[in-house]
């Protein structure tokens, strides 16, 4: 009997590899087969993303960390300022860095001229949602696909490390995932922002705290809403559950469009003297929403 059980357990342990090898592994974007042999980058094997599509989605031009606009005159920029970000509506006129922690010269390396006037929240993202990332984000958000999540988090972490090395940002004390309303969490079964924050925590060794923020309003899905509708939808949608023992945090989400959700949460945290940066997998510029009331 003992030998039979040992044999059974051994056969079960091989099932995942056999299933994995038997499934057609195609890119979620171009639908071409992905090379899972030793010739392919290890992190892309069975990730649902081929190297060509991943490179096409990632940012390669300097971007303002406030509004997300391409910096057309990057002569004074370091390579670290390639990190993209945006708050497509009017950003908070509150710096995400404590006074004195970054010089004016450093701030000029991460903001465009317009954003230097307000010093908005910094939003760090490695890729553009509009470069075809929709199916990948949907797979993460609705199907709990962890393989593409890890690839995009790896790209985000690389961008963060680059900015830190150039002394253009400061690492947060903690990661705060954007919370779901309990009803939405019950329906979906997981919070994609928490999954993203968890992977970032593993890769950067930064603590995760999901007990600080609470979503008290079951807001409507915001796709297709104007900027004014989004702000009304998110107004007073969040509360602080506990006392905040942190001075600097990174708010984590999957995609940032107008920045309405991030701004609403940042207002709560700023009132407690907490400085906020926003980290996400992709930025959706939503040009049709810019400037709308």
TrEMBL record:
Q: Show the InterPro entries listed in the entry.
A: ComF/GntX_DNA_util-trans, PRTase-like, PRTase_dom
Gene3D superfamilies this protein is in? 3.40.50.2020
Q: Which CDD domains match?
A: PRTases_typeI
- Which SUPFAM superfamilies does UniProt cross-reference here? PRTase-like
Organism classification:
Bacteria, Pseudomonadati, Pseudomonadota, Gammaproteobacteria, Alteromonadales
The entry's protein name is: Competence protein ComF
Instruction: Name the family.
Output: Belongs to the ComF/GntX family.
TM ranges are none
């Amino acid at each position: 009997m003992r030998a039979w059980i040992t044999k059974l357990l051994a056969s079960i342990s091989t099932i995942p590899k056999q299933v994995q090898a038997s499934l057609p592994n195609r890119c979620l974007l171009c639908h071409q087969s992905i090379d899972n042999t030793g010739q392919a980058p290890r992190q892309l094997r069975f990730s649902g993303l081929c190297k060509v599509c991943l490179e096409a989605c990632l940012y390669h031009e300097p971007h303002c960390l406030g509004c997300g606009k391409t910096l057309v005159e990057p002569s004074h920029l370091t390579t670290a300022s390639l990190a993209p970000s945006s708050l497509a509506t009017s950003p908070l006129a509150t710096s995400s860095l404590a006074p004195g922690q970054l010089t004016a010269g450093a701030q000029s390396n991460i903001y465009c001229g317009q954003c230097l006037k307000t010093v908005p929240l910094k939003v760090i993202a490695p890729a553009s949602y509009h470069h075809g990332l929709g199916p990948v984000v949907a797979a993460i958000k609705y199907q709990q696909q962890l393989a593409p999540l890890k690839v995009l988090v790896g790209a985000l972490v690389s961008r963060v490390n680059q900015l830190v090395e150039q002394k253009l940002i400061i690492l947060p004390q903690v990661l705060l995932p954007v919370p779901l309303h309990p009803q939405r969490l019950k329906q979906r079964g997981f919070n994609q922002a928490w999954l993203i924050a968890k992977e970032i925590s593993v890769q950067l060794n930064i603590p995760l705290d999901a007990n600080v923020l609470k979503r008290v309003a079951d807001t409507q899905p915001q796709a297709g809403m104007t900027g004014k509708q989004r702000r009304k939808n998110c107004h007073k949608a969040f509360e602080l559950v506990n006392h905040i023992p942190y001075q600097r945090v990174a708010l984590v989400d999957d995609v940032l469009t107008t920045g309405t959700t991030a701004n609403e949460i940042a207002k709560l945290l700023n009132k407690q003297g907490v400085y906020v940066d926003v980290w996400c997998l992709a930025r959706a510029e939503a040009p049709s929403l810019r400037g709308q009331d």
